[in-house]
Write the structure tokens for this entry.
Amino acid sequence: MPPELMPIILGGAGVIALVVIVVGVISVRSEKDLVEERLGRYEQGYQSFLEVESEDDKPKEESRKALEAIDKAISKRPFAQKWRQQLARADIKLTVAEYAALHLISPVVFFGAGYFLLFRGDLIMSIISGFVGFFFPRLYVSRATSQRLIRFEQQLPDTLGLWVNALRSGFSVLQAMEAISRDAPEPTATEFKRVVQEVQLGIDVEDALAHLLARVESDDLDLVVTAVNIQREVGGNLAEILETIGHTIRERIKLKGEIRVLTSQGRITGYLISGLPIVVALFLSVIQPGFMNPMFENRLCGWPMIGIGLALIGMGMAAIQKIVNIDI
């Protein structure tokens, strides 16, 4: 076999494997599998009870046995628990083993794309592309988590209004949350449905709400959970309390929107200044593959310049984000 064909074969195999894994995971997993795997992941006292799965409903594909064995082997490791929590927050239907496999496949795919499509044989830039591909799954999960959190917080005032109306209609706290799980939009409906299912499995309401807060890291939700827990201990009119909190959260969201509009110019400036040098370097590498090679090949001058440049870009971006990020 000619040596020139090896990168092509590896790149093509990586692309095919990535597509097969992603499509297979999305098609095989059902909502019932998600509930079985995600409930109670954040408290070890309930972990063994909540991770029981029905053997009759579990898929029998032979191709998944290896991933299941890997997932079982690493499920108790600290990094695996952290990954599981991140996937739950992003509501991505992947196991820890599948997520780890993406960390291995993604660099191969990015390297092949850089070597054959973008940089056309430039080995150095292709290696950098593979390095970026290693962090791509984490960036995607982080982005999905952020977008999901924003949607949840925007829906929270309406959710509290629905909760208040249900309580004033004579519903209990659990019945009100069940009504929210039926009538609220996503992702609020899914999160409250998990709380109801945990309580039905025998977990205390306070612990189920703590699990909800672990999945959705929101200061507004923390205020709601604290109010519900205090009301369960000392009593009081929960509907009135939630109505006051909902009004406060609505005003905070309105104020955050106004501040975001006023600071939009600063944020866009930060993105432009930080991304422009990198985009120009990539553009030059695409139109003139050998133009940037001396920068990477010269270890005495080129590598320190690249390191200093990236450090200054990161420091500038962090400073601008710190300025425009105003806490309320």
Observations:
- Residues 123-168 form the longest helix (46 residues).
- The chain has 15 helices and no strands.
- Residues 178 and 321 are 39 Å apart (CA to CA).
- The two ends are 63 Å apart (CA to CA).
